[in-house]
Amino acid sequence: MGNKVHPIAHRLGITTEWTSKWFAKRNFHILLKQDLDVKAYLRKKLRSAGIARIEVERSGNNAVTVTIVTAKPGIVIGRGGSGVEDLKASIAKFFPPKTKYKINIQEVANPGLVAQLVVQNMIEQLERRLPFRRILKQSVEQVKKAGGQGVRVMVAGRLNGADIARTEALTWGKLPLQTLRADVDFGRGAAFTTYGAIGVKAWIYRGDIFHKKEEKTA
Hints:
By secondary structure, the protein is of the alpha/beta class. The protein contains five helices and eight strands; from the N terminus they run βαββααβααββββ. The chain has helices spanning about 30-45, 75, 80-90, 115-125, 130-145; strands at about 20, 50-60, 65-70, 100-105, 150-155, 165-175, 180-195, 195-210. The strands form two sheets. A four-stranded mixed sheet has the order 1-2-3-4. The chain has a four-stranded antiparallel sheet with strand order 6-5-8-7, with helices on one face. A hairpin with a 3-residue loop joins β2 (about 50-60) and β3. α4 (about 115-125) packs antiparallel against α5. The radius of gyration is 19 Å and the shape is globular. The chain starts with 19 loop residues before the first strand and ends in a 10-residue tail after the last strand.
């Protein structure tokens, strides 16, 4: 089951959090579509900014807070904050007219331990036609230097322009997919080359998470 269940969804509510934080008594499907459209638009618009995660939080007074977790906050903010104002204006089309927007920018402390950023780096190199074996080795070394305890990277498709598609993977360290307390980050994407799309996946094991129980005082 560990190879078929999304590692982050498998641990929701235990060691991982939802990227959309709100509750709706009605029109759930409309709000969900708004979140998906905004996230897809921002990932496409800020592709070069190294987006690790996008969170959407709603409050009862018709306010929406969009948090962008990025490895390159300077690209998102722009000169004098012009980039944030531009984003506010561009995402207005996805929400009702009277919605209040707020955009927060957070910087990734250690990009080498974020699976989505590792995947984006691999995609950029694949689209530049670099050898996939070198890309796999460099990605594993990047995670090792960043302090990861285990990593698995995988590419699938017409590698190096081969006629028959295949899957290649490289693994280092340990990767406990079934341990719920294990902090396993997962990322995936696709590199679009002249030979077709090449799928990219990455799993990174960053150690275990132990929640200390609060001692009851008499």
